[in-house]
Amino acid sequence: MVWTTLVGCAERKEELIPVRGSGFMSEPGPLSELDHSVVECQLGRPARGAVSVAHRCPCGLPDVVRTMPRLADGTPFPTTFYLTCPKVSAALSRLESAGLMAEMTQRLGDDSELAQRYAAAHVDYLTQRNQLGEVAEIDQVSAGGMPTRVKCLHALVAHALARGPGVNPLGDEALGCLPTWWAAGPCVTTRPCVATTETEAEAHSEEESTHAADSRN
């Protein structure tokens, strides 16, 4: 089982992921002009509906942005916390391909305590989004498959990074499985705008498809 191989990494999360207030990571806040440029480089397109930085990588760049629940063109957008770092996206895509989402979903059916904590994460997500505005089309739709399934690790990890440890249990677990992605330096340079690898750019393309599916479910 893949999870048997990966579960130990979740126990090392505090060693791997500097959390808010640690003194090692810049605090989140409004999107500056530079932040907008960085996010555009990370995504390969302008950020849609982004209103603030929800989390910064230890390298100092944004890695999660907070987005409006309705885009400028009127499209409902359920993904309030949007992961932008291509290194993290690529690493999470590999975990998804390894079968981690299916195993997490199975555990939700077997572990009532975990299911309750995951349901609470769903409520937290909706609460955070409703602070930006309520959109009837996505009422009670959060992200990543919450509250009963795991459909996108990118969404769960973005939530965990933005809100801190203990809010999204499966987002925390997935974070614990990631390498120190910032150790080799920033994921992009802005002049000229260059992503690290083609694979990382493709990871964002796959994530876009999942966000579109979330808005329909």
Task: Describe the overall structure.
The chain has 217 residues and is an alpha+beta fold. It has one domain. Helix content is 48%, strand content 11%. The protein has a four-stranded antiparallel beta sheet, sandwiched between helices. It has a two-stranded antiparallel ribbon with strand order 5-6. Strand 2 (50-56) and strand 3 form a beta hairpin. The longest helix is centred in the middle third of the chain and has 19 residues, at 112-130. The radius of gyration is 16 Å and the shape is globular.
In short:
The protein has helices spanning 2-10, 13-16, 33-43, 86-97, 100-110, 112-130, 153-163, 169-176, 198-216, and strands spanning 29-30, 50-56, 62-67, 81-83, 188-190, 193-195.
Overall pLDDT metric: 82
Terminal Cα span: 29 Å
- Judged by helices, strands and strand pairing, the structural class is alpha+beta
Count of spatially separate domains: 1
Rg is 16 Å
The helix count comes to 9
**Low-pLDDT residue intervals, each spanning 5 or more residues:** 1-26, 197-201
Number of strands: 6
Beta-strand content estimate:
5-15%
So what's the overall shape? globular
Quaternary structure classification: single chain
Order of helices and strands: HHEHEEEHHHHHEEH
Can you summarize the main beta sheet? Answer: 4 strands, antiparallel
Query: Largest sheet, order of strands side by side?
Result: 1-2-3-4
- Proportion in helices: 40-55%
